[in-house]
């Protein structure tokens, strides 16, 4: 089911319209410089800047067609796995008959190791054509093709950047089955992948330039395509930082708890159910030590009776500078979901740290001063796409200043609690002295859930992290940089109408990605480094990851990923319980689930671990890597293309197989890959 806030209105939610005049005077203010300039902007105007498209190898969609409708359907389909597996770039494919406009088949990629949607669609198309005499045809040229393919996002392609060619190969084969056009909602935001698939389809896939269509920036198809992968857009635009969503619930008088600190419950069950679903769309849910001590939350996605709503549960993160956390808390039950505590190394409580680690809690200790920048860098290193912040105002203030938030979900309950200064508010002091300095949310919207109102909006991109912040600090006026940034509104209340839509907010983020890709094409030399780092299975050099979508056949069994096989080999299959664990890992529909089962059972049932596991685990890894890189040609090509460069699994959480947080890990996976590369 599509996420209620993305494309459709959920049951029981009522839309609230914000009216505005057709033309408003909008003030552009350079953040922290105090300069203002004004100009007229029409609400119906198109995006101010032109995205970079590979004009030499594709064309832009024409107005008046129904392409937007089908791209939007692909976006809804791509969002189908949200909450059922860890966040990942979302892909879907819809094939439509060019004359009748009927859907022949459609598919989406489930999880980071799921089968590519283009390959699924190709197989389904073949089945449809072979089973229907009216549709079955022999080889068909693209000039007389009868089918249109719709993709929400350009697929990943490139041997030397990802080891991935399967999506483009499938699309190329579809051409001989009658596909006449490929319509793409948005180009891939990753600077290393952007434009690769489109170029390959034209130069070597047999398609003509006019047969590969990319939606115009301000069309509905492009808007939906950006929205469904907005977390990926932000991650690419900021240089790896996650898309941060700040959620809070408050009373009409602006309090998130009573004067005694009690907050159960500010909002009604309809709002809380929405929050549970939102949590499952993120890599991590974040609170402060105060919230942990006061509320003892579970931070899971669950039903009213406490049962888990989704197969996937995000990590729970507690930020506590002083490590002031209790020995017993519901978050320390890591059988439900993983828990991480980030604190200062100088907390002086080693015994408490050991107690939590023995329970499976990951205690991250930062050297030196505990800062929000260090927290965000840790999240970036873990490769998280989206974080869901449910902290109080004390933590929210430094977080917004550091650029942790991109979007806000504010639930307002129709009740008054009072409490004066003792009752906490959603945001602490972060330096706004006058109302004119307040942060204006963009693309605001509102919905009603039960008796509560949910107000959503985006923070201006000038409050982002990394290169997105640097990008907007250059400023834009009518498509040209001029040193002014759209971060403020006029102090004149008559001009306080939000004309900056969601389309423009996310188009700005995509433009940053496009500029970065163009800059890298012109300036950077990727061969300068003698080291290649890899981690996430959907990022650069993805095929080197054990979580990549490369199934392996070993001893008559098909394993979803090499990670799945490795985790299962830990357990003694001469014991019935060991066999049960192995089968659970074999059936796991994602590598993160397989890894979680293996690690959890290793801690809970050490008696089932193979007695010689420590001495054979490297042999097990060598075996599965050899199977993977000999059974998948594109993955092998990527490995061989690395030459003699040092390979490093850039994992901050694994000091054995990866580089570790301080780059002092053993990097056994990198060593094993380099050994296999030499043998091949």
UniProtKB/TrEMBL annotation:
InterPro entries named in the record: DHFR-like_dom_sf (IPR024072), Eubact_RibD (IPR004794), NADAR (IPR012816), RibD_C (IPR011549), RibDG_C (IPR002734), Riboflavin_Biosynth_HTPR (IPR050765), YbiA-like_sf (IPR037238)
UniProt keyword list: NADP, Oxidoreductase
Pathway: Cofactor biosynthesis; riboflavin biosynthesis; 5-amino-6-(D-ribitylamino)uracil from GTP: step 3/4
Top-level class of the enzyme under EC nomenclature: oxidoreductase
Pfam families per UniProt: NADAR, RibD_C
EC number: 1.1.1.193
Coiled-coil blocks: none
One BP term from GO: riboflavin biosynthetic process
Annotated Gene3D superfamilies: Cytidine Deaminase, domain 2, Dihydrofolate Reductase, subunit A, YbiA-like
Stretches assigned to the Bacterial bifunctional deaminase-reductase C-terminal domain: 242-454
Ranges where the NADAR domain occurs: 534-680
GO MF, one example: diaminohydroxyphosphoribosylaminopyrimidine deaminase activity
Name the UniProt record assigns to this protein: 5-amino-6-(5-phosphoribosylamino)uracil reductase
Organism: Bathycoccus prasinos
Lineage, highest ranks first: Eukaryota, Viridiplantae, Chlorophyta, Mamiellophyceae, Mamiellales
């Amino acid at each position: 089911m599509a996420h209620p806030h993305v494309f459709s209105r959920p049951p029981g939610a009522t839309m609230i319209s914000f009216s505005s005049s057709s033309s408003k005077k909008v003030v552009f203010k350079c953040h922290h410089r105090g300069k203002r300039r004004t100009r007229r902007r029409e609400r119906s105007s198109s995006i101010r800047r032109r995205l970079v498209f590979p004009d030499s190898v594709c064309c832009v969609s024409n107005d008046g067609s129904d392409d937007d409708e089908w791209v939007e359907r692909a976006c809804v389909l791509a969002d189908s796995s949200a909450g059922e597996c860890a966040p990942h770039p979302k892909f879907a494919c819809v094939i439509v008959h060019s004359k009748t406009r009927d859907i022949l088949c459609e598919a989406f990629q489930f999880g980071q190791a799921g089968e590519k949607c283009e390959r699924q669609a190709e197989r389904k198309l073949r089945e449809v054509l072979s089973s229907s005499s009216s549709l079955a045809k022999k080889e068909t040229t693209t000039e007389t093709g009868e089918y249109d393919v719709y993709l929400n996002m350009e697929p990943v392609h490139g041997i030397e950047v990802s080891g991935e060619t399967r999506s483009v190969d499938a699309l190329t084969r579809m051409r001989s089955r009658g596909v006449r056009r490929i319509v793409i909602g948005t180009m891939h935001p990753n600077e290393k992948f952007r434009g690769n698939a489109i170029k390959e389809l034209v130069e070597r896939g047999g398609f003509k330039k006019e047969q590969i269509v990319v939606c115009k920036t301000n069309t509905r198809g492009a808007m939906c395509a950006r929205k469904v992968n907005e977390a990926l857009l932000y991650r690419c635009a900021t240089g790896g930082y996650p898309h941060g969503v700040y959620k809070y619930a408050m009373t009409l008088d602006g309090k998130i708890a009573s004067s005694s600190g009690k907050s159960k419950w500010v909002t009604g069950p309809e709002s809380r159910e929405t929050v549970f679903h939102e949590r499952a769309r993120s890599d991590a849910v974040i609170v402060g030590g105060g919230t942990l001590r006061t509320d003892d939350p579970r931070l899971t996605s669950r039903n009213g009776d406490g049962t888990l709503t989704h197969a996937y549960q995000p990590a729970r993160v507690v930020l506590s500078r002083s490590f002031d956390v209790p020995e017993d808390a519901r978050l320390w039950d890591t059988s439900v979901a993983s828990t991480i505590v980030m604190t200062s190394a100088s907390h002086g409580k080693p015994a408490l740290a050991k107690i939590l680690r023995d329970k499976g809690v990951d205690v991250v200790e930062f050297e030196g001063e505990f800062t929000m920048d260090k927290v965000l860098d840790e999240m970036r290193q873990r490769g998280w796409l989206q974080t869901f912040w449910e902290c109080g105002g004390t933590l929210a203030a430094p977080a917004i200043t550091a650029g942790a938030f991109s979007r806000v979900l504010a639930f307002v309950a129709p009740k008054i609690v009072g409490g004066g200064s003792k009752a906490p508010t959603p945001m602490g002091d972060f330096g706004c002295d006058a109302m004119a300095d307040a942060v204006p949310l963009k693309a605001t919207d509102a919905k009603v859930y039960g008796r509560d109102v949910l107000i959503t909006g985006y923070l201006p991109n000038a409050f982002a992290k990394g290169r997105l912040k640097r990008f907007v600090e250059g400023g834009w006026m009518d498509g040209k940089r001029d040193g002014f940034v759209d971060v403020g509104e006029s102090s004149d209340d008559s001009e306080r109408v939000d004309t900056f839509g969601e389309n423009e907010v996310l188009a700005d983020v995509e433009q940053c990605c496009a500029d970065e890709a163009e800059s890298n094409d012109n300036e950077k030399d990727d061969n300068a480094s003698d080291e290649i780092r890899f981690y996430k299975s959907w990022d650069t050099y993805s095929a080197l990851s054990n979580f990549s979508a490369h199934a392996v056949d070993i001893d008559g069994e098909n394993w979803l990923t090499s990670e799945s096989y490795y985790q299962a080999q830990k357990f003694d299959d001469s014991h019935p319980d060991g066999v049960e664990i192995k089968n659970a890992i074999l059936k796991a529909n994602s590598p993160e689930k397989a890894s979680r089962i293996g690690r959890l059972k290793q801690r809970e049932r050490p008696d089932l671990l193979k007695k010689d596991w420590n001495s054979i685990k490297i042999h097990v890894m060598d075996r599965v890597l050899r199977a993977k890189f000999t059974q998948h040609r594109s993955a092998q090509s990527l490995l061989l293309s690395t030459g003699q460069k040092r390979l490093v699994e850039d994992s901050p959480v694994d000091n054995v197989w990866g580089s570790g947080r301080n780059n002092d890990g053993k990097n056994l996976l990198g060593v094993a890959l380099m050994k296999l590369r030499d043998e091949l």
